[in-house]
Structure formats: C-alpha cells, structure tokens
Design goal:
By secondary structure, chain A is an all-alpha fold. Chain A has 5 helices and no strands. The chains are: A mainly alpha (78), B mainly alpha (280).
C-alpha cells in the first residue's frame, strides 16, 4: 500500500468504517510509515479539538433576548 | 387527558395507569421522554398478556398517542415534543429551541462568519421551523431538518450581504484532487495545553475561517455537529461521495494549518505563545 492509497482511506479509518481485511492492510502500512502515522494521529486530534472546544459561544443575554422574541412570535401563532 | 386504551379487565390497570400518568406528567414538565415511561408501557403490556391473554397491540395506548413505537426501536425524544407543539403546546417548542440553539447559532456563525447575521439566522431558522412544522414529515430527525433550514437561511443572509449575488456552498472549492499533506511534523502531546482558552479559541476560529466555505460547512456539520455523512449530504444537497471528498480535504487542510501552532518544537511553549500573540 502506498501513502496515497492510505490517505484515500484515511477518513474511513478515522470513522471506523473499513472492512477488517482493509484495516489490517492499513495497520501494516502504519507500522512501516511514520509520516502516515503522524497524519492519522494529528488528523484525529484536529477533529477532537474542534469537537471539544466551544469557539463561538452564545452569550447568556443574547440567548434570553432571542428566546423571548421567538416565544413572543410563536404565541401569536407566528 | 386521553384515557389509556389498555384492556379494561386487566387487574393491574389502576396501579400501572397511575405510573404511566406520572411518567406522562414528567414528559410534560421536563420535555423529556424518560426511558422509564417506555419501560412501564412494555411492562404493562407484558403483565396483561400473562393475566388476560393476547391483547390487540394495534390499538393505541397512552404512550403510542404521544410517540409511535416503530419496531423495537425507541423513538427519538423530539417526536413527542413535536406532537405536543402540533397540539398547541408552545412550551414544547421552547424546549426544542433551548435544546438546539447553541448548535444552530454555531452553524450560522461558521457559514456567515458574522455575529449579527448569525443571531438573525438563528431567530429566523427557529421561527421558520415553527411555521412549517406541519411540513415536517418525520422522515429525517427534527435536528437535521432544522439544520437544513439554518444552512439555507445562512446562505440567503450571505447573498443579501453581497447585494443579491448568488451564494453557493461550492464557492472557493478547488476542483483538482490531491491533498497530499506537506507539513508532516508531529504535534506536541496535548498541544492545546500550551495556550489558554481564549488563545486556543482564537487559533481554532482563525484556522477554520481560512478553509474554503464548501469544506468548512461539511466539516462543521459532519465533525463538529455530529450529522452523519448521509445527513450532511441531504442537508447540503450534495452526493455522499462529494461529502466524503470534501470532508477528507477539510480535515487534512485543518490539520496542516493547525500544525503551525501545535507542532513539536524545542522550547515550544513560550515560543509558540509569543508567535500567537505577535500575530494578533
């Protein structure tokens, strides 16, 4: 397996959607290729960081204001 | 309050109906569908089966008037809330708003990249969803349907800002394939520890804002907001292979851009911190 072939299946490996025999081939490539191992680990980390950090926080005041506006409209039957 | 249609000769009816009623009140007050309520329904049916023989399960029970039981799978809790909204219970919609407001705001902010627009989109999306709730067929999850409305509202908002110019999620997408990473440096262990919360949030914002819009939206829906590949494709009107292709490229581009901040380097902590502060 080449690095290009490995990269084409990187998402499937991350999303755990590869067939067992293909997973075995990918693991074999990973044992031999430090670069692909770095790419796999750091791509996983990238996803994890974006999932676990709130980068656009909703301020409490805004939430209440919008909430009141939505409820007021909805009670009138929109 | 509808009465339960459990067989009237069932000796356990009174006690179990009382427990079901309690579970129903829990749903009304908390906007939740407790597993307990579903368990009680099954328990009640089982006991009546043993005491009275087979019951006609095609007849609606108290719970099935709130949420249909499809096979052995538990229905999504939103189904019960939507039923209540359709019956005129605005507080149930309030529950849905509070449940999804953060996600909808984040999606709108990621697409419009403008705080005021994101606020407007969030409000418009929830109002539109309320108005069109009768059109919601339940073929997809309510959340996915809501996200689709928010994405469309966000794109319309962008078009308004650009004085009527059409805006598509395909914008800025390069057509050529081949995303072979250039920066192959490994990252420091727990690289985010080198930055405080505000610095890290700024890095993450700046990095994802640099992605082409078509990649950014796919990454946000699929990896941040947790839609499946199929749901992302349906929401954006893309094919599943197109979503997969964009997701791979978005992930690799983000990884490469973040490597600038997170790669392993001698004296990394202070040096990287200074670099980030200087960039601001």
């Amino acid at each position: 397996m080449t690095c290009t072939e490995f990269l084409a299946l990187l998402d499937d490996l991350i999303d755990d959607s590869v067939a067992p025999e293909m997973r075995s081939e990918l693991q074999t490539h990973l044992h031999k290729c430090g670069h692909c191992e770095v790419i796999l680990n750091t791509t996983r980390k990238t996803i994890e960081i974006y999932r676990s950090h709130e980068i656009y926080d909703l301020p409490a005041g805004l939430r209440d204001r919008l909430h009141a506006a939505i409820m007021a409209r909805c009670k009138k039957g929109c | 309050m509808r009465s339960s249609s459990v067989s009237s000769n069932c000796p356990v009816r009174s006690a179990q109906t009382a427990r079901l009623f309690h579970a129903f009140l829990t749903i009304r007050h908390e906007g939740l569908v407790p597993r307990r309520a579903v368990r009680y329904t099954h328990l009640l049916r089982l006991r009546c089966w043993f005491r009275n023989g087979p019951t006609d399960f095609s007849q609606p029970t108290l719970m099935s008037t709130i949420q249909p039981i499809a096979g052995e799978l538990e229905p999504h809790p939103d189904v019960a809330l939507i039923s209540r909204v359709r019956e005129g219970d605005v507080s149930a919609y309030d529950t849905l708003v509070r449940k999804y407001e953060r996600q909808i705001f984040r999606i709108a902010q990621h697409i419009t990249q403008n705080r005021e627009d994101a606020e407007d989109v969030m409000q418009d999306a929830f109002l539109k969803a309320y108005e069109k709730l009768d059109q919601f067929q339940g073929n997809s999850k309510f959340y996915t349907w809501l996200v689709r409305i928010a994405v469309n509202e966000s794109l319309m908002r962008l078009r308004k800002r650009r004085t009527g110019k059409m805006v598509s999620i395909d914008e800025d997408i390069e057509t050529e394939e081949g995303s072979v990473p250039r920066d192959l440096a490994d990252w420091a262990p727990d690289p985010e520890q080198n930055y405080n919360q505000a610095e890290l949030a700024e890095i993450l914002r700046k990095t994802i804002q640099g992605l082409p819009q078509g990649f950014r939206i796919v990454f946000v829906l699929r990896d941040v907001e947790g839609l499946s590949t199929e749901e992302t494709a349906e929401t954006l009107g893309l094919s599943v292979p197109a979503v997969k292709s964009r997701l791979l490229r978005a992930r690799l581009q983000l990884r490469e851009r973040l490597s600038r901040y997170f790669h392993r380097k001698k004296g990394s902590g202070e040096a990287r911190l200074r670099e980030t502060r200087d960039e601001k």
